């Protein structure tokens, strides 16, 4: 009998591109551009929704989109490359958080809409970013105490919630995009299904390189087919300017009002849970140990990017869960791919025509690719939950009840639109907000603060037959004890 140390393996394969490897320039460009396409819709949808709600002009809306892409690029480079003790140095793309959409619209409408509303929003965003940045510099002992609020049962639930909440976004795109005249048209589902099928075929029978750029190729092939059939429109490219420069405080000096600031601070608390979960998830995927200092560096990057976003006419930033799913799918784990993606985003933020070309990808094609990636986000959360002893009833309750809360806004929207105070609705009308809050509160009720290092999966010695040990070491996982459990919970799981 051979004694082996078994650890959780997220993909069962040895990566050919470790997290700190600098790839050849052509591969960096391809993989980086794939990340941009994977996150592009999620990146631009927030300024589009907020800008339309505040009744901004088309020119102002284009400026918001360019500012968002430009700041996304800077933020992603800070997170992946790292500057001193800022940035996790992991393949994490930074994007505008969906959690902030409802609160920002509520703040903006309360301020009367238009560019005047943007000034109040930016004052709250800058303040919340600085507060997040300062929080992540707490003394190590105090920070570790706070991080004990987020053991695997919490972060795994939050990542799973993110995937579940995002999947309908992908499906709506697959249907043609909410509000579009042809929403629900079967041809949109045909494009989505064809794109998805093409991606899955590449993943199944393609060589490693083709599999690693399957999302990119799926988007390119799907868009080409749609263009040949007359369903991909690029008319806006000729109307766009060649160069668009993002300048600080373009719309005027920010205004600082207490209620918008409080709302944005609560938003940032939720995004900290998201980033914490994404950091642990991508650490598992790339095989790099994540400790409290890594999480602190990731949160500092969030805070710095959010404050910078308020200065550069953008919004709060978070580690994008969509791209965590892409890292797992492609198994391209080099953080410098994200740095390359950041460079592409900066260029797109400076070239409205280039951004208009990317924006020409039909909703159906984008939805087919996005649905696959969002499903992989949910899987990343499930893999984190694999570290949790769900046979323990209290852990099962935390996960199950939190998922139920997360589905409430989408299932019973009338509760928030007609039967709740508008200010309270702007805060709670988010599946991520409700699911994350429920997970944190229920974990405190059932498990308390728990122990330090709850995220670290200890290596456990298990007995395996000699022949099986050589083949199956990577497929075994050790389940770490959850807060409040005894030594009986430290049992190996395969």
Automatic annotation (TrEMBL):
Origin: domain of life: Bacteria
Region (Disordered) residue spans: 457-494
Main location: membrane
Residues annotated as transmembrane: 28-49, 61-83, 90-110, 116-137, 149-169, 189-206, 213-230, 256-273, 336-359, 365-385, 397-416, 428-446
Keyword Transport: yes
The entry's keywords: Cell membrane, Membrane, Transmembrane, Transmembrane helix, Transport
Annotated membrane topology: Multi-pass membrane protein
Subcellular location: Cell membrane
Pfam families in UniProt: Xan_ur_permease (PF00860)
Annotated family: Belongs to the nucleobase:cation symporter-2 (NCS2) (TC 2.A.40) family.
Protein name, as recorded: Xanthine permease
The organism of origin for this protein: Streptomyces spororaveus
């Amino acid at each position: 009998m051979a004694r082996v140390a078994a650890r959780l393996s997220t993909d069962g394969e040895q990566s050919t591109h470790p997290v700190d490897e600098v790839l050849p320039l052509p591969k960096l460009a391809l993989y980086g551009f794939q990340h941009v396409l994977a996150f592009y819709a999620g990146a631009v949808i927030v300024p589009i929704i907020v800008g339309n709600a505040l009744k901004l002009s088309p020119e102002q809306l284009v400026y918001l989109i360019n500012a968002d892409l430009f700041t996304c690029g800077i933020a992603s480079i800070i997170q992946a490359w790292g500057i001193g003790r800022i940035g996790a140095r992991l393949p994490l793309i930074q994007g505008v958080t969906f959690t902030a959409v409802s609160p920002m619209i509520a703040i903006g409408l309360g301020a009367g809409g238009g560019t005047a509303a943007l000034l109040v929003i930016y004052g709250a965003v800058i303040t919340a970013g600085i507060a997040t940045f300062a929080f992540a510099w707490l003394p190590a002992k105090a920070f570790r105490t706070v991080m004990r609020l987020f053991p695997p049962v919490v972060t795994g639930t939050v990542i799973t919630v993110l995937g579940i909440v995002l999947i309908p976004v992908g499906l709506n795109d697959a249907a043609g995009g909410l509000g579009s005249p042809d929403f629900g048209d079967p041809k949109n589902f045909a494009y989505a299904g064809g794109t998805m099928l093409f991606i899955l075929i590449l993943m199944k029978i393609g060589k490693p390189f083709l599999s690693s750029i399957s999302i990119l190729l799926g988007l390119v092939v799907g868009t080409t087919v749609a263009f040949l059939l007359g369903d991909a429109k690029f008319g806006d490219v000729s109307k766009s300017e060649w160069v668009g420069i993002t300048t600080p405080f373009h719309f005027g000096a920010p205004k600082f009002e207490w209620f918008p600031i409080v709302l944005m601070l609560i938003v940032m608390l939720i995004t900290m849970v998201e980033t914490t979960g994404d950091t642990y998830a991508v650490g598992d995927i790339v095989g790099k140990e994540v400790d409290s200092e890594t999480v602190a560096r990731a949160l500092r990057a969030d805070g710095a990017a959010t404050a910078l976003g308020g200065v550069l006419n953008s919004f709060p930033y978070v580690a994008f869960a969509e791209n965590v799913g892409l890292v797992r799918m492609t198994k391209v784990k080099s953080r410098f791919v994200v740095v390359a993606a950041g460079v592409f985003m900066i260029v797109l933020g400076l070239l409205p025509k280039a951004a208009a070309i990317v924006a020409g990808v039909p909703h159906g094609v984008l939805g087919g690719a996005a649905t696959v990636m969002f499903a992989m986000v949910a899987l990343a959360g499930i893999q984190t939950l694999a570290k949790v002893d769900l046979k323990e009833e209290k852990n099962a309750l935390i996960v199950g009840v939190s998922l139920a809360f997360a589905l409430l806004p989408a299932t019973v929207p009338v509760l928030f639109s007609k039967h709740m105070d508008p200010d309270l609705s702007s805060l709670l009308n988010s599946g991520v907000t409700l699911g994350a809050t429920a997970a944190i509160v229920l974990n405190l009720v059932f498990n308390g603060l728990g122990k330090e290092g709850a995220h670290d999966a200890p290596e456990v010695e298990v007995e395996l037959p000699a022949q099986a040990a050589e083949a199956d070491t990577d497929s075994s996982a050790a389940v770490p004890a959850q807060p409040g459990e005894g030594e009986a919970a430290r049992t190996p799981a395969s």
